[in-house]
Amino acid sequence: MCGITGYYSASKHKFTQEDLKRMTDSLKHRGPDAEGFFTDEYVGLGHRRLSIIDLSERANQPMFSHGGRYVVIYNGEVYNFREIGARLKTTTSPQGTINFKTSSDTEVIIEAFAHYGTSFVNHLNGMFAIAIYDKEKNELFLFRDRLGIKPLYYFWDGTTFAFASELKALTKLDIPLVINKNAIRDFLHLGYIPTPASIYKQIHKMPSGSIIKISEDGIDIQKYWNIKNKIHSEVISDKQQAMVKLSDLIISSVQYQLKSDVPFGVFLSGGIDSSLITAQAVELSSVKVNTFSIGFEENIYNESQYAKAVARYLGTDHYEFIVSYNDAINLIEDVFEAYDEPFADSSAFPTMLVSKLAKNQVTVTLSGEGGDELFFGYGAYKWSQRLHNPVFKYFRKPIAELLYMLPSRYQRAGHMFDFSKESNLYSHIFSQEQYMFSDQELDSLLQPAYAAASTIQDHMFNTHVNRSFNEFERNGRFVGKERILNPMESQALFDLLYYLQDDLLTKVDRASMQHSIETRVPYLDHRVVEFALNLSPSLKYKDGVSKYILKEILYQYIPKKFFDRPKQGFAIPLLVWLQNQLKYLIDQYLSKEMIEKYNVVKYEEVATLKIRFFGGVDYLYNRIWLLIVLHKWLEHHGKSIEFPTE
Fold first, then answer.
1. Is 464 a residue of the active site?
2. Which of 60, 170, 528, 551 gives a 20 to 30 Å CA spacing to 453?
3. pLDDT tens digits, residue range 149-178?
């Protein structure tokens, strides 16, 4: 795990070596063990290393191919590098037999590129953001992993290109920064800014599963992996067959991801996903497994007792951290600094705290991200099923009006039924399940200059997935079949494309890397994802039981009684804190002076929101938090950016 930076300019150096050094230094937390640079008349590459595989200096980056033509920097891990390396040793290449000089995955990556070209990326199993420069052709290639586990941002103005693992590195360059008004709306609706946008109009997130080529001819972006193309026309319905195959795939993924030359552990919440990962790690590891959990002094939010029980049953070396208000408040500035752009997932606080705890013992951790999205773990999936019911669709407005007349808890459900455009239903369901602003609320809240359309495209994950792969050829044409996804599958696909990548994985990457920890996510092995996409929905949600098949596998390791409780999630008591200890944030960042200073939202709407919140409408707490996060970010960065005027 590392931090990478770089630039490319066919017009010969808009950026300098000093720019490159400044960018790379800003990512020292991602790689405290070593730094390295490469420059020529076209390109600059910078690297900060966190040593995980092959701890020797020989494995430092940038690294050159054996023939000297290619140079690589990369962030992440390729878990199957030994198999790829073994195949390369048996192949004939223009350079002759390959004799590897290190035991690192970096050397395998650059030699695989030299041998296969850009198609080498299809051989990789891992999480990665890779930059490879061809010195002979003056071409730069970037590769991002299939699910967007590892981050990569880029700037392109038509002649000059720059990239980095984190947004903060690109802001070290002398480039104009204009606020992205579309991103403001999306942030207030979702709590994060979805790919490919960033908070800055000129800087973009590289799409997952993509290749970017930069040359004297300009920029070219191509997809090498598309999640929709992995959805087959038929589903797997046989429970026993599915359990055996899925269990084998997860075991294989965990076994891959336990490979490390430094100590490892597991983030254990005591829930389904992390408990299964922990159980399999214990079974596969030759050393005792470290586990880490976190809880809260407010007992309703404390799941650490369940994690402790699972850890005791599995026999791990378990560490827990009980968080107080003071622990969280001391992290506020660190959290805002880590995420670079408005980011409202308050579970970033416990994630950063548990990373800090784990760093005292390990450098690599496994985490359970992806289990909910792949196996229907969220309440939003049941809402999607309800709201696609023709009766609810037809009567949604009267239902909403009725619920608005009832106490606070029912009013929140009223917002779920109160949507105007069916084309944006999936983002609406996500937004209201997370207590964010609805589209209608944003129409009233935002100033005219920010009343832009959402960048989310719900039609990209609608219920009809067209297939033209693995089918038969007729009259010289591929004849595709069509699989109709049910509402739960479609909602889960929305989460896989947006929420998982731009919220959950972003949260874990920044929080763990802030403490120089590499966090791996076994459920997001592409083999597991592709298999899960084609499981029958009845194996994911059965008789009111979510994650049905995953639980059936888990119960082969740990008795069911350990999990007979409602799902709580990994959250802080934000509602309570905003009403008490964190009320000063409301006073500071949602004051009339602050709101009118930036003029993004209308103060009269904010004032009404505050009155309702302190008057007992509890579900508004996340809307309050969104506005605090936005205005705290604006106050910190506003002097260096331009604002839209219309």
1. no
2. 170
3. 999 999 999 999 999 999 999 999 999 899
